[in-house]
Design a protein that fits this description.
Elements: H1 3-6, H2 17-23, H3 33-40, H4 50-54, H5 61-69, H6 73-83, H7 87-93, H8 100-103, H9 105-110, H10 116-130, E1 144-148, H11 152-163, E2 167-172, H12 180-183, H13 194-203, E3 208-212, H14 222-228, E4 231-234, E5 240-241, E6 253-254, H15 255-264, E7 276-280, H16 284-295, E8 300-304, H17 316-324, E9 327-330, E10 333-339, E11 346-355, E12 358-369, E13 372-375, E14 379-380, E15 390-391, E16 394-395, E17 408-410, H18 422-441
Parallel strand pairs: 1-2, 1-4, 2-3, 4-17, 6-13, 7-8, 7-13, 8-9
Antiparallel strand pairs: 5-14, 10-11, 11-12, 15-16
Helix pairs in contact: 3-5, 5-6, 5-10, 6-10, 7-10, 11-18, 15-16, 16-17
Length: about 450
């Protein structure tokens, strides 16, 4: 039984269905053709473009913007997809304000960058709407590769391997492919079923078989995959949720589960939400949980983060978006206890100082009224297949995703060194695929 069933204050239908539908409309509506041309004309088309360096997938941004400016959005999309096969989703969810747009020369000169993310969406949406798939498979190699995890890293790896002529089987524990894009991103960022539409478009290249409801460890073992396939790629993400380490933690709910339920709900008006919601954490999951709680009708929503705002994982843009939605952000406070008997009543926090020795409580505490508490303090590996070396709580890799086991590569959130971003996962899956292909071709 969920906490929402135990807590009287957590109920569905806080807002009329039409109000919720309006709240969850596209947060950044797409540019029309005229707007796209105006936005493209602002680009300096820098030869030594800092925006390319700032993009984890190294898209040739000036080139695709010039292609939009010259009326060839299909060519622009191809330029994007050559580097980032999930460019449509990344255009919607990438923190462009801290990546390519922050590096934009217009941003430095005027404080207003070229709208790279929206232009990328314009190009990819137009090309997908036109139909067809821009890539063809190479001649079959006879090689078979298993990909575990149908998230951004796994899908990018599978597509690039299929391009090279390999047969790919993708295993995923959930009912639908897509991973984070399908289950872990705020609904107002990816409306209209785009996540699944993009997966279907990607799979149109052929040579990729997806088996859902198949978890590594429970339904298929890594040893079995290594025996049956020529190579294995692991894009298993982070399935576990970190603990609060506070008294009464069992009364709190997982923010990632809340977002997943929301993304899969047929009727958002039927989704229960509290009147007074507290979210513990400072990253994108915390912001997405808090904002969507407000959009569902929660009256008071507070994000509480243990350090200062400048240390929050969520960008300043996302913090501002939360504030605009009516979310209060409290910083420098650690959870001490969740109070209530069978149902949340309030959450106790201790003010904290972040010094050279780390966080320490100041001795002052405060309490927030709450009937729903979400923990969004990061995720961890839920399980690591035997034989894989782990470092910092994630699978250790070298170069383009090589693990400690021969013939096994990994990428995405399950590995260290990334920013836990969709775009980074795509780059890691793509690069691992190229390394796998090189290894297989050399045999």
């Amino acid at each position: 039984m969920s906490n929402s069933q135990l807590t009287p204050g957590v109920v569905p239908g806080r807002l009329p269905a039409e109000a919720i539908a309006a709240n969850f409309a596209d947060v950044a509506p797409p540019l029309d053709a005229h707007e796209a041309h105006v936005a493209a004309d602002r680009c300096y088309f820098c030869h030594d473009a800092p925006c390319i360096t700032a993009c984890p997938t190294a898209i040739d941004i000036p080139l695709f913007i010039r292609q939009i400016a010259t009326g060839t959005p299909g060519a622009a999309a191809k330029t994007i997809w050559d580097q980032n096969i999930l460019g449509g989703m990344c255009a919607r969810v990438c923190p462009t304000e801290t990546l390519c747009e922050e590096a934009c020369v217009r941003e430095a000169a005027e404080g207003r960058p070229v709208e790279i993310g929206r232009l990328q969406r314009f190009a990819t949406d137009a090309a997908m709407a036109a139909g067809g798939h821009p890539y063809a498979r190479a001649a079959p190699t006879g090689r078979r590769v298993a990909v575990v995890g149908a998230g951004p890293a796994g899908l990018a790896c599978a597509h690039r391997l299929a391009m090279h002529g390999h047969e790919v089987t993708v295993y995923d524990a959930r009912p639908k492919p897509g991973g984070l894009n399908e289950y872990g991103i705020a609904a107002y960022k990816t409306t209209g079923g785009f996540a699944q539409a993009e997966v279907e478009w990607l799979l149109a290249i052929g040579g990729i078989t997806v088996e859902t409801g198949r978890a590594v460890g429970a339904d298929v073992t890594l040893d079995d995959l290594r025996a049956r396939f020529d190579a294995v790629f692991l894009g298993i993400g982070l399935g576990g949720v970190n603990a609060l380490g506070a008294q009464g933690e069992g009364l709190a709910s997982d923010a990632v589960d809340f977002i997943a339920r929301l993304r899969q709900a047929d009727d958002l008006a039927a989704l229960p939400v509290g009147r007074d919601v507290v979210v513990v954490g400072g990253g994108m999951t915390a912001v997405d949980t808090a904002v969507q709680s407000r959009l569902l009708g929660a009256e008071n929503v507070t994000i509480v983060y243990r350090r200062g705002r400048e240390r929050m994982g969520a960008s300043g843009h996302e913090q501002d978006h939360a504030a605009a939605a009516g979310v209060k952000i409290v910083t420098n406070a650690m959870p001490a206890a969740v109070h209530g008997e069978g149902a949340v009543r309030e959450v106790e926090f201790a003010y904290a100082e972040d010094g050279p020795g780390g966080l320490r409580p100041t001795g002052e505490t405060f309490r927030l009224k709450a009937d729903q508490v979400f923990k969004a303090i990061g995720q961890r590996l839920a399980g690591v297949p035997a034989g894989l070396a782990v470092e910092g709580g994630r699978i250790r890799v070298e170069g383009p995703g090589r693990t400690s086991l021969p013939g096994v590569w990994a990428g995405g959130d399950c590995t260290g060194g990334g920013e836990d971003l969709t775009v980074t996962a795509v780059a890691q899956g793509r690069d691992a695929a190229e390394d796998i292909h090189a290894r297989l071709a050399a045999r």
